[in-house]
Amino acid sequence: MAQGASMNVIKAPDPAVRITYRPGFAKATGKKDRIVQVYGDDEEVLKKAFWVRDMWMGLPAVPEKATLAVSPFWEEEGKEGEGEQEEIGDAAQVIEALDFADTEGYVPREEAEPLRVVVGRVGDYEKVVFKRFGIYDLKKVGEDKKGFLLNAGAQVLSMDWATNRSEGCQYLAISTLTEGEPIGERNDEQPPAFSRLPSKSTIQIWRFRVDPETCTPAKEPSIALMLCHDWGPARSLKWCPARLSFKDSRVLGYLAGVFADGIGRVLKVVLPQSDDDPTAADADGCDFLKFTAPAFECYLPDDIITTISWISATGLVVGCASGSIAAWDTTAERIPYLYTTLHQTYINGLSTCFPSFPNHIITSSMDGYSRLTSLADFEADNVPNNRSRIAPSTITYVDALQSGVSVEEGSWVKLFPIRRYFSATTVAKQLGIVRSLAGSTMHTLVLSGGTEGEAMFSNPARRVFHSKIKNYQQTWFQLEYAEGAGDGDGGTLRMTEGFKLEECEVKSKVKGGQQLLTTVYPMQIGIGAVCWNQNQAFGGWAAAAASCGLVRVEDVAIP
Question: At what angle do helices 43-56 and 31-39 cross, to 10 degrees?
């Protein structure tokens, strides 16, 4: 402490001394203080921060068409890489075409119990039965609706929108928990989370044709590709987010995934020729492809990979069941250039701070912590946040806010600025345990899904720039489940929508002086996967999937 300083005042004895103390973010009520603590004091960065404030702070919880724009922190970097083509292991990838008769054991079973769903506005419900891959147009609910419901056929584990699709059809990759034929012997005594469980499975690539004038879905979606493999269900799917262009226009992009056998892989996905001509007779047809070898493989002989994310167009980072991370350069040998331990145990969420800080990653683990780590110096630049008694199961990054978004105590969605990662700001509150989160590079809105069956929108930008502004959350829809009477009656789901905007409660509700306990909800209604479309014209497209296999895709942006 400097000479003459009191206990309540910290003064530096020398201007060259770096003081790491900062006032708490919650106590920094001044607008300038809050902006500096999130974005730093660089003048050029602050100019972009003010642009973010003017563009998105006024949105209560749902995006608007006029505000869909690329994060200002990506524009300059994007110009450098735009138009480049990156080839990842084209010679290594082995694919063969399959007939529909050969797909038994790969695709979800047709004889599975159909989904019975009650949809519609309150007082005007309609009962719909979804068979495998069944589709329902939401315009039947209201003319203002621009989307569809579909049955993926099994529990959805992960999904992601294809990038680099500035126009034309949009494609959604969906992985499901199919009961395929096991490959190899199984050790029933070993915990499944720490075991390699290869089996027959598939990744569905859904095709959404669009109206070029309104950029909304134009007709019922269809499956363009079925990517069959023997690696087990894909637990995590991520399209390469870098701006790439390909000589062959049918190349959809590079899809990274972590499979049940504990190995990460990159697949080069090529569309069928019928997609070039939407008027062709087989324009809505489906091709079945069997992947024998991927374009690139991330393999650790003594560890199980659990999650994956892109660092750049040719860089990958993975999280492992042991609490370690590893990173690969896909243009080099298949040996990771980095492998180190970050957490005490299982990493269940990982995201890179792409595109602003691609070499920084944020992770969430079953040890109760989420961490911000620099891959350049992972020992010195490693910041944990407060430990949560209920381990965070998911994490995402919002580039325009230079912040990570994760979960505390199961149901609180909170914002963690990367320059003050040890502090948190409440964004939204769900009734159940938050199982999925999604951010976007086209706006600051966050989409979250919980075990109570609610998919919810929120805008953390409001609290970033103003401490006293009202913070809202908007329930997109809510699922409920009623058990059947037996004798083949598999139960009924009800999807309720039309909720009003509500203010986020910063404290838990109490009853008789005691906090209400978390409820255990039916497994069928849990929202286990959510994602935003990362293409600018379609940045308002959101997708949410329940454990029963029901997927809702809708353009939620306000015209």
Answer: 110
d(CA 367, CA 387): 8
Q: How far apart are CA 498 and CA 493, in angstroms?
A: 17
Phi/psi for 55 (5° steps) reads -80, -40
pLDDT tens string 362-389: 999 999 999 999 999 988 889 999 899 9
User: Cα dihedral angle (30, 36, 37, 38), rounded to 10 degrees?
Assistant: 110
Token pair, residue 337, equals: 């250039």
Q: According to the model, what pLDDT value does residue 84 have? A: 53
Structural tokens at position 279: 């008027």
φ, ψ of residue 153 in degrees (nearest 5): 95, -15
Q: Is 265 exposed, middle or buried (0-12, 13-18, 19+ CB in 10 A)?
A: buried
53-95 pLDDT, tens per residue? 999 999 999 999 999 999 999 865 444 445 555 577 667 899 9
How far is 206 from 237, CA to CA, in rounded Å?
14
DSSP 334: S
SS3 31: helix
In this structure, the strands spanning 315-320 and 324-329 are antiparallel
3-state helix, strand, coil in the chain (%, to 5): 15, 40, 50
Q: Is 77 helix (H, G, I), strand (E, B) or coil?
A: helix
Task: Please return the burial class of 291, using the count of CB atoms within 10 Å of its CB with bins 0-12, 13-18 and 19+.
Answer: buried
pLDDT top residue among 27 and 345:
345
Phi, psi of 139 (to 5 degrees): -65, -20
Higher pLDDT, 285 or 319: 319
pLDDT digit string, tens, across residues 100-141: 888 888 988 877 788 999 998 877 889 999 999 999 999 998
Structure tokens at 115: 């989904």
Which strand (E) or helix (H) includes residue 295?
none
* CA–CA–CA angle 463, 465, 467 (5° rounding): 50
Take residue 548 and report the two structure tokens written for it: 């029963």
Count of positions (residues) in the chain: 559
